[in-house]
Amino acid sequence: MALSRVQYEQLVTGNKNFSVTMPYISKDDIKVSVAGEPVTYSWLNPQTVQLTAAPDVGQIIDVQRETERTKLLVDFQDASTITETQLDLATRQAVYLAQEAFDLTNSTMAVANDGSYSASNRRISVLGEPDSDDDAATAGWVKGQFNSGYDAHEERVLAEQAAGSAGLSESSAADSESNAATSESRAKTSETNAAVSESNAKTSEINAGQLADTAANHEANAQAYAASINLPLAPGNDGKVLITDGTNWIFSSMTLASLVQRLTDLESKTANISISGSTTLFSGEIQAADLSIGN
Question: What percent of the chain clears pLDDT 70, i.e. is strictly above it?
Answer without folding.
Answer: 79
